[in-house]
Amino acid sequence: MRLKLFGAGGGRLGSLAGLGRGGAGALALPGCLLYTRTGAAPHLTHDTLREVRGVPGVAHIALPALAEIHDVLEEYKEGAAKFMGMPDAVLYCSLHDPVTPCPSGYNTNKTVSLWGSSGRMEMTASKFMDIQRAIQPDWFQCISDGDTISGEAGRKRAKKSVDRSLSFLDICLELQEKSPELQGSVMFGAIEGGDILEERLRSARETAKRPVGGFLLDGFQGSAMAKETKLKLIASVTAELPEDKPRIIHGVGKPDEVLECIERGVDIFESFFPFQVTERGSALVFSYDCHADPEAAVLTQNGIQDLEKNGAQEDQEEVSKADPEMTPFEIPLKDKKYHDDFGPLLEGCSCYCCQRHTRAYVHHLLVTNELLAGVLLMMHNFQHYFGFFSAVRDALRDDKLDQLKELVFRQALQGPAGATLKQ
Amino acid sequence: RSRAAKMAAPAAGPVPVLRIVAECGRSRARAGELRLPHGTVPCPVFMPVGTRGTAKGLTAAQLAALGCRICLGNTFHLGTRPGSELVRRFGGLHGFMDWPHNLLTDSGGFQMVSLLELSEVSEEGVRFQPPHGGEEILLSPEKSMEIQNALGADIVMQLDDVVSSTTTGPRVEEAMLRSVRWLDRCVAAHARPEQQLLFAIVQGGLEPELRLRCIRAMTQRDVPGFAIGGLSGGEAKARFWRAVKLSTEHLPRDKPRYLMGVGYATDLVVCVALGCDMFDCVFPTRTARFGSALVPWGSLQLKNQRFAKDFRPIDADCGCPTCQRYSRAYLHALLRSNTAALHLLTLHNIAYQMKLMGSIRDSILQQRFPEFVREFMDTMYRGRGGPPAWAREALEAVGIPLG
């Protein structure tokens, strides 16, 4: 794995190359991973995924689903990627699934608990490495104690998360050395420490001393940590890390938060966010085209339609009340105002869904509980999200990050700015 | 060296829908083409059911890539949600689904009777309360045609008075006679005969005499095709096949015969032998969503633990995208967490049906349909005590005795 930085200001524009078994895999930075559930993009078969543009070169799978079939993988012997029908994929295995809640209070000095479809699995470092030997991932998060996000963790708990994680890391590095199956795998060290600056710094410095291939900023999931604190900690942590190794963060998905992290030295994100948007029947429509003329976007595409309908403002508020997770970056297609909307999900979008179907069709599919709704929305939401990262890289290259930030942050407050999306 | 096909004599009016290319020398099976507004469809053909404007989790592109050139849309479901007027504004069901090939819509009658607690049939039509709110609706022959005209499918079905195949008594005759009258009303109300082909539906339950009377009456009307309705609803198979055979015996040779609701592999093979050309059924797509994969020797219930470590594909001889790439063990694992598994199985099951019909058709063209039938039955029933008695009898009756 080789990391190259291109020296842009405002973020680490660069690339990772030489990834995967054959060394042909690559990932542009800053970038995201392809979120999968048991190795398949949610709702998408191989051929429908192929219709999505900009799919990242590294796929993300969570350990719990694979831990549940450990015995199957052991018998299979040829690794999880091949088992899951993606022998040429570059695979990153994280400890937890970003979408599955992790109840607090179950980790011990020697074990970490994972949560899968069959419930809780308690894991030692040794058991963890057994499973990784059967998975044979290209990258994997070292087992760590990240149980500091509930907001009740104090200094002592934060210290424990660092101590335990370092202890796990040392055990796993040693075990990796003795495992032929894992010689080609890159271990990512998890940086813990809750919301305590000292502990975060200690974790970063100590982890950086170990021969890990990359770093994972853990424990920033959820909403318990104050935003200021979160951003300050992220910046402080990355300042301690070597430039030439990639930095992944878990649990950050909204575009405004992604930009904040990129500015503070983070390279790689997950793509669970478009999946969550899909699951609530919404389509991402936020603009990331900072070349569009802001004055031309006075009456937005959505705005015009809203003005034509009475009480549209109330509708939007009602729906947002209905789903507290809704963000300003999306439109809730189950809403009845879309039942005769003949436009694409997003004007100017070149995805499979927007090229062939309308908001009304997707609305109909959602209202009648048809499986195809998830398929089409996932295709659109993934393509849009991957397009966003591409726009971030372009903005870094063209020194336009400030404009992009302004555009995205404005939408974080006001909702989608939808002038046509030019690509 | 296929026997010279007897082309249907050119009709005075529009081009006939069915072109017979070959006929089995022993049974009543025939292979040909349906010439439909959105392109030619080889037959015998199985039509996947798309219910609400989608082939379940498959995109239109995926369905077409499997070789499907005609599928079903469901008038009742689409007529209530989103409503036919809205679908018309989309350019009909074709535009709505982005489907460039052929579509067939049913009349809405069957769903009404089977899905609704409170539906009431009279000479006017079927009166019912929409399940999702709104005023009471009368689905008359005229209304059904109005909806189907708006949806714009290539083949539309008459509104028939459907009774369950297990019903007996005077209601069966009443429904049959009413269906004939409703056929006339549908023909009269049909606003787009150039673009959409209206098929009649033969009723009469399991009573040979009633069925015969129905056929005699309906074949006097000039419709481009006939469906055999009122069967495949739980009746005894022994009576089922006899009713099918009676129907094909008396329906015109040169018009397509559509057997509604038939989709199990064995039933398809037997009913092709009996002379049917078109079939539809929810079974392959529905069973996929329960984790069941269709194979030439039955089906695999992939949720079952026995497949957890089975690293073979569903069927090594199947060329579908699912079998090319994934093992039974992986599908077993994926079923737990990702709807993609359902789509992969739906893809496979439709591919299975398409392949089966293709093999049937090829064997007829190559004049070896009886051998095909025997091989099929052997693969399916060897080790399970042999083919079911009803299938044996039916095939024997059309000149294909099984060993």
Automatic annotation (TrEMBL), chain A:
Query: Which Pfam family is one of those matched by this entry?
Result: TGT
Q: Which GO terms describe its molecular function?
A: metal ion binding; tRNA-guanosine(34) queuine transglycosylase activity
Q: Which GO terms describe its biological process?
A: tRNA modification
Fetch the SUPFAM superfamilies from UniProt.
tRNA-guanine transglycosylase
Q: Which UniProt keywords apply?
A: Cytoplasm, Metal-binding, Transferase, tRNA processing, Zinc
Question: What residues does the tRNA-guanine(15) transglycosylase-like domain cover?
Answer: 11-411
PANTHER family xrefs = QUEUINE TRNA-RIBOSYLTRANSFERASE ACCESSORY SUBUNIT 2
Q: Which HAMAP family match?
A: QTRT2
Q: Please state what the protein is called.
A: QTRT2 ribosyltransferase
UniProtKB/TrEMBL annotation, chain B:
Question: Which InterPro entries does this one have?
Answer: TGT (IPR004803), TGT-like_sf (IPR036511), tRNA_ribo_trans-like (IPR002616)
Where the record annotates domain tRNA-guanine(15) transglycosylase-like, the positions are 28-381
A GO MF term: metal ion binding
Q: Provide one Gene Ontology biological process annotation.
A: tRNA modification
Keywords for the protein's UniProt record, in alphabetical order:
Glycosyltransferase, Metal-binding, Transferase, tRNA processing, Zinc
Which top EC class is named for this enzyme in its record? transferase
UniProt name for this protein: tRNA-guanosine(34) queuine transglycosylase
What superkingdom heads the lineage? Eukaryota
Keyword Metal-binding tagged: yes
Q: Which Pfam families match?
A: TGT (PF01702)
> What EC number(s) are associated with this protein in UniProt?
2.4.2.64
Coiled-coil segments on the chain, per record: none
Cellular component, GO, one term: cytosol
